[in-house]
Amino acid sequence: MALLDPANMAGLAERSRSKGALEGGEKVYMDKEELARHLFASREDSILVMIDMQTKLVPKMCEPERIIENAKRLLALSRIMGLPVVFTEQENLGPTVPELTEGTTEPAPISKMAFNCFSSIPFSVRLRETERHTLIVAGIEAHICVAQTALWAHPRFNVHVVSDAVSSRSPDNYRVAIERMRTGGLTITSTEMVIYELLQRAGTDEFRAMLPLIK
């Protein structure tokens, strides 16, 4: 249950009340840790999924410089916090743009023909090996590979789509994709929201390492 809206919160509260009724009528509400698992990304459970940020595709996107810059910030956060990263590449669209692969120690990108990344067995295996259940999703195109992958993942995974790190060739398709994913129960977030959510506090070495990228 990733989306913070009245319907979802009402459902969570109702399950808590039902639990209380089963335990002798005593009011038992969802504890903070359980609620946080539904609403927030955590460093212990998150994996960054970078979809099809390739040389033949990125230049055709709306605001390509913006999505590259935000993808770089997400990758820097992943390195600093030790989050696993999975890159995918659609066949025949070139390699991942060099701005995102320079200095990376992540495994080679997963090549695929299907638009839904979960149709690729190596992708599903890679996720399973991480034993993590929160996907932080960036990449292109928002209305094709990103949407199909993110919607398929929910509700087996908590899915956070980073709205300023995804794009499409047309603004209309981007807007439709974001709205469909939002109404489908996914969390729509931003690069800075993800960064601060995972950092949790100022004053740490990780915060100081990220500070030049978020000033």
Write structural notes for this entry:
There is one protein chain. Helix 3 (64-81) packs antiparallel against helix 9. The protein has two domains: 1-39; 40-214, 3-Layer(aba) Sandwich (Rossmann fold), CATH 3.40.50.850. By secondary structure, the protein is α/β, with parallel strands linked by helices. It contains nine helices and six strands. Residues 1-28 have low confidence and may be disordered.
Overall geometric form: globular
CATH topology category name of the largest domain:
Rossmann fold
* Residue share in β-strands: 15-25%
Mean pLDDT: 87
Instruction: Spell out the helices and strands N to C.
Output: HHEHEHEHEHEHEHH
What radius of gyration results from the CA coordinates?
18 Å
**What is the tally of helical segments?**
9
- Report the major sheet: 6 strands, parallel
Q: Which architecture of the largest domain per CATH?
A: 3-Layer(aba) Sandwich
If strands are numbered along the chain, what order do they take across the biggest sheet? 3-2-1-4-5-6
**Overall number of domains:** 2
Name given to the CATH homologous superfamily of the largest domain: Isochorismatase-like
Low-pLDDT runs: 1-28
CATH class of the largest domain: Alpha Beta
SS-based class: alpha/beta
How many strand elements?
A: 6
- Helix percentage: 40-55%
First and last CA, distance: 32 Å
